[in-house]
């Protein structure tokens, strides 16, 4: 099931996307948005009886994380190598504030403090219930679904500050979307990033150093996870700079495509 958050010009609503989405993340012309009554993370899936053509709505970030986005650093060996680092012995955690979250089509604002802003396409894990110290064998019980993420990073500030908060925490530095896919095997999903239509990243979740169950178990051993919290699972090799005017698209096969343009504020 594909659960989205959308607007027709009024207050945001949640809905279920029906119809087919091809391997390039492009929905079929007959895709529909069936509106839900309330936030499905709190009240479950209840159809309101209203629906729209998908082309007639504007997609928003599919979740508004209640408290946090947890990023995982250097979770692909080839990416760790391109960053000049060894593979970490355990998952490397960092935080992105929930104020960094934007949705499909929203602009990524290029901050005046940076001259080197990078894209990082990733699979995102959306948490569905309050949980802590989740054992690996029960991780599926706490996952609501999966989405596409772009862990935008001011690389020069990351080097300067050493820690990641400023470099990854600017408003608009966490695009998520286009929806949450609730039924998906994430063991071998293609993760690709295109800059102005040119393929820059081409990886697969089969190459994750720490898989999704390991990540959820590890993060939840450190902090309580809340419904709507997101774990970004790491980016494949091929990260690089983007400039104002560029368009970046992250495609996770089995979910869909997330596209944003880079602009000066």
Number of helices: 5
Strand count, sense and barrel status of the largest sheet are: 12 strands, mixed
Number of domains: 2
* End-to-end distance: 36 Å
Secondary-structure-based class equals: mainly beta
The pLDDT mean sits at: 96
Query: Ranges with pLDDT <50 over ≥5 residues?
Result: none
Q: Which homologous superfamily in CATH is the superfamily of the largest domain?
A: Fumarylacetoacetase-like, C-terminal domain
CATH architecture of the largest domain: Alpha-Beta Complex
Radius of gyration: 17 Å
Query: Helicity level, as a percent range?
Result: 10-25%
CATH class category label of the largest domain: Alpha Beta
Number of strands: 20
Spell out the helices and strands N to C. Answer: EEEHEEEHEEEEEEEHHEEEHEEEE
- The name CATH uses for the topology of the largest domain is Fumarylacetoacetate hydrolase, domain 2
Can you describe what's shown?
By secondary structure, the chain is mainly β. It has 2 domains: 59 residues, SH3 type barrels (Roll); 196 residues, Alpha-Beta Complex (Fumarylacetoacetate hydrolase, domain 2). Helix content is 12%, strand content 39%. It has 5 helices and 20 strands. Strands 1, 2, 3, 4, 5, 6, 7, 8, 11, 12, 14 and 17 form a 12-stranded mixed β-sheet that branches. A hairpin with a 5-residue loop joins strand 1 and strand 2. The longest helix is centred in the C-terminal third of the chain and has 11 residues. The radius of gyration is 17 Å and the shape is globular. The chain starts with a strand and ends with a strand. The model has no long low-confidence stretch (mean pLDDT 96).
């Amino acid at each position: 099931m594909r659960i989205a958050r959308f607007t027709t010009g009024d207050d945001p609503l949640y809905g279920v996307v029906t119809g087919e989405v091809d391997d390039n993340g492009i929905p079929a012309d007959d895709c529909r948005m069936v509106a839900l009554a309330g936030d499905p993370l709190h009240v479950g899936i209840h159809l309101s009886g209203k629906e729209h053509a998908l082309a007639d709505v504007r997609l928003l970030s599919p979740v508004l994380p209640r408290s946090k986005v947890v990023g995982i650093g250097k979770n692909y060996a080839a990416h760790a190598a391109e960053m000049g680092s060894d593979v970490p012995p355990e998952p490397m955690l960092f935080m992105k504030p929930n104020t960094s979250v934007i949705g499909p089509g929203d602009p990524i604002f290029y901050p005046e403090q940076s001259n080197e802003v990078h894209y990082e396409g990733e699979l995102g894990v959306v948490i569905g219930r309050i949980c802590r110290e989740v054992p690996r064998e029960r991780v599926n019980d706490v996952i609501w679904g999966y989405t596409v993420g772009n862990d935008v990073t001011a690389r020069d500030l990351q080097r300067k500050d050493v820690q990641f908060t400023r470099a990854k925490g600017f408003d608009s530095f966490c695009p998520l979307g286009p929806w949450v896919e609730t039924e998906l095997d994430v063991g071998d999903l293609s993760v690709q990033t295109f800059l102005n239509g040119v393929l820059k990243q081409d990886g697969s979740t089969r190459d994750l150093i720490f898989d999704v169950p390991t990540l959820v178990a590890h993060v939840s051993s450190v902090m309580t996870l809340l419904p709507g919290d997101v774990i970004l699972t790491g980016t494949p090799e091929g990260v690089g700079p983007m400039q104002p005017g560029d368009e970046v698209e992250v495609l996770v096969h089995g979910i869909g495509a997330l596209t944003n343009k880079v602009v000066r504020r």
